Amino acid sequence: SPSDPDLVERARAAKEKLGDKVFVLGHHYQRDEVIQFADVTGDSFKLARDAAARPEAEYIVFCGVHFMAESADILTTDDQKVVLPDLAAGCSMADMATAEQVAECWDVLTEAGIAEQVVPVSYMNSSADIKAFTGKHGGTICTSSNAKRALDWAFEQGEKVLFLPDQHLGRNTAVREMGMTLEDCVLYNPHKPNGGLTVEELRAAKMILWRGHCSVHGRFSLDSVNDVRERIPGVNVLVHPECKHEVVAAADYVGSTEYIIKTLEAAPAGSKWAIGTELNLVRRVANAHPDKEIVFLDKTVCFCSTMNRIDLPHLVWALESLAEGNLVNRIQVDRETESFAKLALERMLALP
Ligand code: 13P
Ligand code: SF4
């Protein structure tokens, strides 16, 4: 829907008043009405780096979800304040791994006698607590754009990886890019005793995948791929690695949101594409490339409801509050958590 002109003007005025004091980051899944005010846009890896590269901005307004704002707080200086325009913008995947559950899992691995061989690799889409656990146990963070490099690094440090919390990114990377088999992966279910696994299964596994997933990408199925291939002959299927393994296996291209955008930019005029990721992004790239046929992979619409919580009214409220000197919706990670989480994030930023 077109943005309310009054709100657009208010956002512009507040941003102008704040000047260099504010830096607005926008994830690719954000609404158009919000993205128009982003100083930079990106996938979660790029935004983490961009946040860290702005030490002069007093306020970082993060148009994205909670775990991204936490990561920005961890990577910025103590004087910088990170603001999330709507505190209800969480991530259901990140919520699937709590600190208690992960500590319990580590006990299970310890009892099975394998904890010393295990290196945790946590997807960016996790709480600061999980990132701190990862840093404490010698592991790294990864995003959808560097998961293979993170796993390569982890398997230089140890024999097994505990991959949190997205089973699909873990499985897809291991099988598609690392030469592992589905049998090398086991699924740890935090709601079952011992994760629902036997000691033998844990000892035999190379990848211990946490049973988490993205509800948005989980909606794409093999049928969605087969249907679109039938409907649009010659279509290229391009999906995000948070999709299920069977979807990724049937796709032609797989990559992060930034990769999806770059691939479509480079695609020849007249080419046909079906995209398996969040709808705001798919619509935006389709509008940006009218010379290419770009469709959404599934027939049913698929926004990320929590990403969509950041809308223009919330952004205006946050910017106007900051312009009036009221610090609202600050995301602040406590120091102890921050120090260990930073270790894990810095390992990621240092990956080759
Ligand atoms: P990327 O932006 O890293 O591709 O991640 C997608 C996502 O689900 C963010 O929540
Ligand atoms: Fe979380 Fe999925 Fe939304 Fe990304 S798209 S924020 S992983 S629920």
From TrEMBL:
Catalytic activity: iminosuccinate + dihydroxyacetone phosphate = quinolinate + phosphate + 2 H2O + H(+)
Pathway: Cofactor biosynthesis; NAD(+) biosynthesis; quinolinate from iminoaspartate: step 1/1
Any GO molecular function: transferase activity
The keyword Cell cycle belongs to this UniProt entry's keyword annotation: no
Cofactor binding: number and manner: Binds 1 [4Fe-4S] cluster per subunit.
Family matches, as InterPro entries: NadA, NadA_sf, Quinolinate_synth_A_type3
Documented EC number(s): 2.5.1.72
Binding site for [4Fe-4S] cluster: 91, 214, 304
The protein's role, per its UniProt record: Catalyzes the condensation of iminoaspartate with dihydroxyacetone phosphate to form quinolinate.
PANTHER family: QUINOLINATE SYNTHASE, CHLOROPLASTIC, QUINOLINATE SYNTHETASE A
Descriptive protein name: Quinolinate synthase
Record organism: Streptomyces lateritius
Gene: nadA
